[in-house]
Amino acid sequence: MSDDGYPSDGITSISTSTVPKHQHGEETPSMNFDYLKYNFKSLSRQASHENLASLSSANAEILERRFHMPNEEGLQHLKNTSPVVSKKFHKVLIANRGEIAMRIMRTAHELGLKTVAIYAYEDRLSMHRYKADESFQIAPEGKHTPVGAYLAQDDIIDIAIRRNCDAVHPGYGFLSENADFARKVEAAGLKWVGPKPETIDALGDKVKARAVATECAVPVVPGTDGPIDKLSDAHTFCNEHGFPVIIKAAMGGGGRGMRVVRSADELDSAFERAQSEALSAFGDGTVFIERFLDRP
């Protein structure tokens, strides 16, 4: 891993400047496209000075991938065809954290867009904070839990408005499948980088997605007719359909709020843990149950 947080691909890394300490609300530096382009050329010269008469095409590809920099023709194609750039976005707030946020920043910078990162107090030293053009703490210490900060819809939108952002990109997880958040973003005059709220309503909630699939005559595994919030309903389903089953959070994804249950003895604790984890991760403790396919 190189100093800037990206895989080195076997190429000598270029050390980045010391990251300064920033207080709440201050802008943070980021490696923009021009910086990457400049260092791409510098590294190419460095390779030549190390008795490499010329870079092979393979090495050139590694260097290009190392700095995630498309060639001039590719860059122009991105600018001409990207739905983000074609709508004249200039600054995007990324409502996520960590590697997810950094991937979005990397693409945004290649497209010439400014990025705004948000972070919980507990994430004040996280890398994504320093990779954006600007970064802001979501709320004062103690107002939200570390996860709850990234679910604080009004605080996040307030930052986007105050920093003159054009759009909000939710990444995945957290608020990415929250139709109400998408509507709030649009109501605030910002572009929502993601599916339409109506689409999220239909498919972001797994219970509703099952209903859509059934209406379209798509086979689905046996499952509860809708969300359940009573342990007794879970027992009723399992008594009828047997084990193993899987308890799933209706919202979100990434394996959060999911528990595989293989016997009645495990059901009670698994049901409670799934609800608690779903509520913590997605702000919604709704769960449902399906038969689990052990060897599909």
Give a short summary of the structure.
The chain has helices at residues 33-49, 57-66, 72-81, 83-86, 98-110, 127-131, 153-162, 179-187, 197-203, 206-215, 231-241, 264-282; strands at 91-94, 114-119, 134-137, 167-169, 191-192, 245-249, 259-261, 287-291.
What does this structure look like?
With about 300 residues, this protein is an alpha/beta fold. The protein contains twelve helices and eight strands. Strands 3-2-1-4-5 form a five-stranded parallel β-sheet, sandwiched between helices. A three-stranded antiparallel β-sheet has the order 7-6-8, covered by helices on one side. Helix 6 links the parallel strand 2 and strand 3. Helix 8 (about 180-185) runs antiparallel to helix 9 and helix 11 (about 230-240) packs across helix 12. The longest helix is centred in the C-terminal third of the chain and has 19 residues, at about 265-280. It is elongated, with a radius of gyration of 23 Å. The two termini are about 35 Å apart. Mean pLDDT is about 80; it is low at about 1-60.
